[in-house]
Each structure stands twice: as C-alpha cells, then as structure tokens.
Amino acid sequence: MTQRTARAPARALTARAVDAAKTPGKYFDGNGLYLRVDKSGGRFWVQRIVIRGKRREIGLGSPELVTLAKAREVARENRRLAYEGQDPIQLRNEARAVLTFEEAARMVHDLHKPTWRNDKHAAQFIATLETYAFPTMGRLRVSEVTSADVMGVLSPIWTTKAETARRVRQRIGTVLKWAMAKGWRKDNPADAVTLALPKVDKTKEHRKAMPYPEVMACLRAVQASGAGLVTKAALEFLVLTACRSGEARGALWSEIDMAAKVWTIPASRMKAKRPHRVPLSGRALEILEAAKGFSDGEGLVFPGTVKGKPLSDMTLIKLVRELGFPVDIHGFRTSFRTWAQERTAFPREVAESALAHMAGDAVEQAYARSDLFEKRAKMMESWAAYLAETRGEVVRIA
Fold it and tell me: Which residues pair with 28 in a beta bridge?
C-alpha cells in the first residue's frame, strides 16, 4: 500500500479505490479524511481534525451509505467550522437533538396547557395540528420547516375553511416561535405565508340571534318539548342571566348565594379572566330551587348525563334547532342586549356590564371600578318581567 499522510496524501482516493479497499488499515484521502477498514470487515469514514486546540476524530459514516464525494464535502465543512472556532462535533450532536415538528408541537402543547382557558381549547390546539399539519410536516425537524411546508398545509383550507386555517397558521407559528427560543431556528415561516396566500373575505358572520319578542315563544316550546328537566332549566337560566353557554352550563352551587341573590362566576371561568357577579331575578331563583333536585353530588347546578360533567353545548343547540329556531345559543345574549337598548332606559354601560363587557375606552375603564350590581339587579328583574309578560304566565319546571 502506498504511504500517505493524513495532511498531505501521496495520492487521493478514488471511488474505485474505496470500493476495492478490503484489507484492514487506514486509507487516507485529504483534509484529515481517511477510510478505516477493521479486521471484522467493517468500513468507516473518519476525519482527524483539531478543534479548539485538541485533536479529535469524527465518524462520518459507512462508505456503503456515504460516498467519497459526500465524505469530502463534510470533511471540508468541518475544517471550515473548526477554523472559525466552532465545534463541528457539538453542532452535529445539537442538530440530532432537534425535535421533529410533531414532537415540538406536543411539547409546546404540554407547556401551554395549564395556561389555557379550558380543556376544550387545549384539545383543539393539538387536534387541528394532528389533522392538518402532522401528516405532511410532522416528521420534519423543526429546524427544517420552510414556508413552502407551511403553505402546503394551509393552501387546501385557506379559502374553504378560513377560520380553521387561521387557527392552524397561528398554532404552527406558536410551535416555531418556541423553536426559535430554543435556538433551533432564526425565523418563523408561519409569519410570511399569509402574504403569499389569496385574500379571504374577513367579514365576520355574526352568530344567529332571535328577535327579543320571540324569545319567550322559544322557551315555551322548550318547556313543552320532551327534553330533560336539566336541559330545560339550564336553557331558561342562561336566557334569564344573559350569560355565555359555558358559564351557565358549568355553574357550581358553591358560586351561588341564594340569600344574597347573586351568582359569582370566578375569573377562571370567564372569557375576560375577571370575576363576574350576576344578580339573580326571582324567576332565576325559582329555577335554582327546582335545580336542587338535579344534584349528582359533584356540585354542578346543571349536571350532564356523565357524572361530574356539565351539559354539553350541543345539547342546547340541538334542542333549540330541532324545535324550529335556527339560532345560536350565544345569540340569546344579543336578544337581551337589543331588548335593553330598545325597550328600556338603562344606560349602555349597565347593559354592557350585564354581559361582562368593559364599556368605554381605556381611560374610562381605568376609572370605572364599580360593576353596577344594584342597577344590573333591576335590569335583570325587568328582563325576567318582560319575558313573563310575553309568555302570559309563569311556566314551572315539573
């Protein structure tokens, strides 16, 4: 075998020489690169290199998988990195430690889960990525994800499922921002793709609401239906208190003070993350008295069919729509707000406070410390009285 040195080989290797090298020994090429053949027959590319003053050896793989040309390319790059004071071995190990997009997404999901409003929101975060992102880019290293990859996920649903696509883009962006914080990438391709996608009509379709004169007709139909007593009570309570569906369905007995006629919803269950006191009208208190018989021992005012779980939102929506009322449950808040605007003299800020909205600009909000509870109590009693007038008589839950 012709003598060679690692630094200046007498003759560089050829592809044919690599294929023919079977005798145990070291076959040098250049840039510290050599082919090592073991007595066992194993063949490996190895590079000798000085990294930060220390002589090191780096394995570059088997010639059966790594060609001579590729081994030379990697060896040259390693020498360049070492010359610049970097450690190619450390960089390679760090690259191998980079998670795939799916692994990173699941880690981000676990990290953020305790901070999200509810379990439903947390479940939606990972479910949308499982459906739309993981099939095409889930196995990519999070450092390798490109704008083209994100475009590939969003393009099929950008115009047909605009809101879903927007949320998917936002969630992909959240994962990639985390990867940036880890030092695994320097950009967030999810930020740029919107400019390359077609414009989508952003006109928001409001939730379907019922004209307030028709609300009691709906409640009468509900009471006359074959729905369960809990469902009937929950829907009327929701209408009377003008609360969101989740707030009413998740009501706990520990939140209600029957003597003080107040229901205090904690910040953790409110959209704005502020506690909200709800004055209870006489009719709302009647419903709560009847609801004491629904108890499943878990503290829920309106328990669902599964022990410890509240009624589902779909239960209420399905009931109302099957009775011929094509509205959204959230729309009853609009019915209340329109009634207050058209049929009463209560100030705007009282009605907005009843809906747990912050009225006015930032300065007004900073000085408005009262929740206007007493005025709202009168308003909610007037709302109950209006509904009683339109139904003609009190409908009892029986």
Answer: 34
